[in-house]
Structure formats: C-alpha cells, structure tokens
Design goal:
This protein is 44% helix and 16% strand. The chain is an alpha/beta fold and 304 residues long. Helix 1 packs parallel to helix 13 and helix 3 packs parallel to helix 4. The mean pLDDT is 97. Bound molecules: 1,3-dihydroxyacetonephosphate.
C-alpha cells in the first residue's frame, strides 16, 4: 500500500471506530500530518480528557498514552507500538518515590508527566514542561521533591528561588545530544537568530537560549517573534510544525542528532494495523489509575 492508500484506509477505520488520532510534536512528519490533533504533552492530555471519541490512537511514547488512559478510562487508548517507551520515564520507579518520601517526609512530590502511571500514583501533582514553574510555585512549603528530570528541575529551580527542589538524576538522552558548542557555532553564523530550547536540555544549553519552552511553547514563540531565523534545541520532529506554520521563517536544528528513536517507532502502517486489530490497548490497573488520576487532575486544575 502506498501512503495515500494507507491514509484513506486509516480515515475509513477512524470513522467506523469513532476514533481520534493524537500525535506528539516529535512524531514522524506523515504521522503528524494525518493526526486530528498535534501538540505538547499538556495539550494532548487536555484533548484526551475532552474528546467525545470512543477510541484514542495515541502517536507518542508510552507515558503519554498512559496519561490519556488515566484521564479517559471509558475510552480505548491504543499505542500503535508498545516498544515506544521513554528512557527518562524509566529512570525512576514507584519504590524510588516511596523511598524519597521517607527521606523527605514533609516535601510534596511533583512528577514530570514523563513518568509511568505507577510513579504518578505515588505523586502529589504532575506537571509538564509547559506548566512546571506554575505547579511548583503553587505548592506551599519550601522543600519540594521534583522528579525525574534533573535538567528541567534545575531550570524550574532557577525560576522559583523561594523553593528548594530535591532533584532526581534523570535525563532525556535525546536532549543531551545537544551541546553548548552546537548553539555557539550556529549563533556565530547567524548572529540575529533567536535560540529556543526545551528545558530538558543541559543547563549550559538552556543558559545560552533566549527562551526555554515546551514544544508548543516554542511554536507560539516562533509565531509571535519578529525574528526571521531560529536555532531550535529539541527533538528535530518539531521542525516540521515550526516550518509548516511559519513558512517565511528559517528554523535550524541545534543538532541533527537530536532524534528520539522511540517517537519514530510510530508509522502509518502501525496506525492502520492498530485500528484494524484494536490493539495494543493501554491498560492500567484500577487502583494505580485512580491514584495517578488525582495527580494529573491536580495539575490540570492548577493550569486550567
Ligand atoms: P512537551 O510537553 O514540551 O511536548 O515535551 C514532551 C517531551 O517528552 C519532551 O522530551
């Protein structure tokens, strides 16, 4: 089947199943182009909780599909490739969170959404890169456990000086491929370019940026800025939407090595197969889902 045939068949099945396709901003170009909604983690969570569809085909990595399933237990959430995990999310488990709570009994736990449902179940409130500063700022008390991304945590700490964040040694291997010298080289060549990066980048990289933002935050920034050229420090899948929405502007990847192999596992063929077979379904044990839902709902309430 060629892409047109695949897309036609996907659309037919989507109607038949009353399904919606949600895709993260890092997805393969052809997946982004057939999605009903593309967005950052926060937008996709919101959409998952609001849609009237019976089926959500989630084109992203497993923690994102799990978040959709946490928010919409009455819907079938399909993740077209169960191997699409997140190494950052895998760097902490529920037992680690329980141990942290024992060590710091008075500190609430903020979990970046890049965590498993089991970790979210042990968490007071979730956050995404779009709202982490607001979530941390909303909490009473000084000490806060912030897991699992130490770079996002360091960035949030720099914006919330009245708090003391207890960080975990987690990181995103894809964002770590972006080095300060990549930014400096490009900045040398394009001195008028604005530098926009994801806060999962190394602190030395974030310190060189004009703005550290969520993926959708970068899209908004690029739209609203008068600059013509942008150096983009994140997974290169984001460049598709940046270029599509700003055809008159130039976007330069900080590093072509910043490719998330897990995000790229989702293909049109796998989406079609998933809709045909109605699997693989994301299933979360009820007790974990209910506890995890509290932490995700608290986040959504704060930023609503
Ligand atoms: P956003 O929420 O900014 O889209 O980021 C998701 C992510 O996993 C970044 O690596």
């Amino acid at each position: 089947m060629n892409n047109t045939e695949l897309i036609n068949r996907i659309n037919e099945l989507k109607n038949k199943r009353n399904a919606i396709i949600l895709a993260h901003n890092y997805q393969n170009v052809e997946v982004q182009d057939i999605a009903d909604i593309t967005g950052d983690s926060l937008e996709l969570s919101r959409k998952a909780s609001q849609t009237k569809a019976d089926v959500i085909v989630f084109c992203g990595v497993s923690f994102m599909a799990e978040t959709a399933a946490i928010l919409s237990p009455e819907k079938k959430v399909l993740l077209p490739d169960t191997n699409a995990g997140c190494p950052l999310a895998n760097m902490i488990n529920a037992e680690d969170v329980i141990a942290l709570r024992k060590k710091y009994p008075n500190a609430p736990v903020v979990s970046y959404v890049n965590t498993s449902a089991a970790v979210k179940a042990e968490t007071d409130i979730a956050c995404t890169s779009a709202n982490a500063i607001k979530v941390v700022g909303s909490l009473k008390g000084k000490e806060i456990i912030f897991i699992p991304d130490k770079y996002l945590g360091t960035y949030v700490q720099s914006k919330t000086p009245d708090k003391k964040l207890i960080l975990w040694e987690g990181y995103c291997p894809t964002h770590l491929k972006i080095l300060p010298e990549h930014i400096l080289e490009l900045k040398n060549k394009y001195p008028d370019a604005k530098v926009i990066v994801h806060p999962e980048c190394r602190t030395e990289v974030a310190n060189l940026a004009d703005a550290a933002l969520s993926t959708s935050g970068m899209i908004k920034y690029a739209k609203e800025s008068n600059a013509k050229t942008f150096i983009v420090g994140t997974e290169i899948g984001l460049l598709h939407k940046l270029k599509k929405e700003n055809p008159e502007k130039t976007f330069l990847p900080a590093s072509n090595l910043a490719v998330c192999p897990n995000m790229k596992l989702i293909t049109l063929e796998k989406i079609l197969w998933s809709l045909e077979e109605m699997k693989p379904e994301v299933l979360i044990p009820k007790d974990i889902r209910e506890k995890a839902l509290n932490s995700v709902n608290r986040m959504i309430e704060i930023v609503a």
